[in-house]
Structures are given as C-alpha cells and as structure tokens.
Specification:
seven-stranded mixed beta sheet; 7 strands; 131 residues; mainly beta; 14% helix
C-alpha cells in the first residue's frame, strides 16, 4: 500500500486557485521541502493530500522526488487535483505521513466538494456526538 503525505495549501485562497496553480504546470508541480522524507520509497503511487480551511479536501498524485541545487528537495506532483471527502485536520507545519487506510476516499463524478461539511464544523459536531 502506498504511503501519502499531508500538507497545508498555505498560499492558496481556495481549491480553485490550488487547481489553477497545479494545472498551470503541465510538466509537474513542484513542492519544496528541506529534507527528503525518510519513507520516500514507500510513497511510489501515493499522493500529497491538501489541507485547506482545516480540512483535507483534495489530493495530487506524487510523481517523484529530486534534489535541488541548494540541497533542499522537490516533491514532483502530477498537475491535477482530485477532490476527496472532506475530513477535519488541524494545522501543522511541513508535511505528515498518511497511510492509505487512513486516507479519505475520492469523491465520485456525481459528488461535489460542497456536498460534505467543512472540516472545522465536522470536528465540532463530532465532539458533540452529532456525527
């Protein structure tokens, strides 16, 4: 089972701007990080799951890793955004591993991101025992 990672879409105002940024880079979008993930070999076939507004909301398949001239590492992503079932995720710095069995499911073609509750609201309702 491939391993994935989560990352906050901190420069993105919305899912639409994130999608536009990814699709504007047809050869692959590049995320830069200081260190190569220790478990990068397990990430073949995995994805980078995007966190926006306290929700895991979409993913981009990982194509590979390459070292930059300054010693940092690039995570090369496919230039597409796949919407997933929104799931609350608190903010964090950098990236975190996400095993496949804990990853949210992809939304079907007849589902839209608006069909599910935002992550913050989901978490509050869960704490109240309502979902």
């Amino acid at each position: 089972m491939p391993l994935s990672i989560t990352k906050i879409a901190y420069r993105s105002e919305s899912i639409h701007t994130l999608r536009a940024w990814l699709e504007a880079q047809p050869d692959g979008a590049i995320m830069t990080t200081r260190y190569l993930p220790k478990r990068h070999e397990e990430m073949k076939g995995g994805s980078l799951y995007w966190i926006h507004d306290h929700s895991i909301c979409a993913r981009s398949p990982i194509q590979g890793f390459e070292q930059a001239q300054d010693g940092r590492w690039h995570i090369i992503l496919e230039p597409k955004l796949i919407l997933v079932e929104a799931r609350y995720k608190r903010a964090h710095q950098g990236w975190r591993y996400l095993p496949e069995e804990k990853a949210p499911r992809d939304l079907g073609p007849d589902e839209q991101a608006g069909d599910v509750l935002p992550g913050k609201l989901q978490n509050k309702l869960r704490k109240l025992g309502l979902v």
